Amino acid sequence: MNETLDMKDVRSYSIENIEELMISYGEPKFRAKQLFAWLHEKRVENFSDMTNLPASLRKKLIEDCRLITLKPVKVLESAIDGTCKYLFELYDGNIIESVFMRYKHGNSVCISSQVGCRMGCKFCASTLDGCVRNLTASEMLEQIYRIEAHKGERISNVVIMGSGEPLDNFDNLIRFIDLITDEKGFNLSGRNITVSTCGIVPKMYELAEKGYPLTLAVSLHASTQEKRKALMPIANKYDIHELIKACKDYFEKTGRRMTFEYSLVEGVNDGDEDARELIALLKGLNAHINLIPVNPIKERNFTQTKKEAVLIFKDKLEKSGKNVTIRREMGRDINGACGQLRRSYIDESKKE
Description:
By secondary structure, this protein is of the alpha/beta class. 36% of the residues lie in helices and 20% in strands. The chain is built from eleven helices and 14 strands. The strands form three sheets. The protein has a ten-stranded mixed sheet, with helices on both faces. The chain has a two-stranded parallel ribbon with strand order 1-2. Strand 4 and strand 5 form a beta hairpin. The longest helix is centred in the middle third of the chain and has 15 residues. It is globular and about 70 Å long. 41% of the residues are buried.
């Protein structure tokens, strides 16, 4: 099939959009339900396989629409914990990555929302080459569909925390959430979705207005504005106190407890003063703090905080009444951190 950008990306369509498409084709509306089922229940890769659709409609779909599917180009499985890292090739040759993680409470996938990222966070490999383009809703869905097909297991939790800034791809993110939670499709509860953001404040307010019951995870990584600016360029646009105000609004609108991601970098943001400042910053906010020993990447000289220091930091936060966890490191032996595998794959391809 000749896949061009002007063709209709039907896997990104809501059932209402598909009904409109069927009407434009002169087909009865019930065909939309049939097509939607092929796309999101049976997850076929070719329109010709949609056997209960008339041959004339299948021909029209082949001519007019593109059926986005992802091709796995590399799959690595951790010998430590069974985590699987996937590199998928998109129809235009770009590469994205996704991660499958098995927990006691169910299987989780971490998916990408963009090819690369333009946010520039200093400790992240995803952002080193900038953002190539946004992913469509179908490309976000396909990461989950392909992983389910490969593992033969149901995915019960989705984390949009791979390469990219989801709120920088807001319209496609919303379309994805609506599709993944559709009871006629994947039917995932919004409570089982986590969206990560580095803090695009206006979009946080916009997401809050949607009223989804999902978890919003904010990449905070510093306890003051000055320290945050040194690690995260987004802080030059949105002050840390503006960010916290948006977090409070999100909690008030949705009733969902905030999660704050805090990557600990030795000698940068892991001291006693940082702990005290963080406690003061989050005072009065219903929050969960997720401490992350930073993943070293060769392009930066950050050093991971020692385990003992991480535990001391955690203890100080807990004594102030905060709910704190230390993120379990998964897939470390397979470049499990955000952007690392894609980066190494691109470097290898350039050498070849």
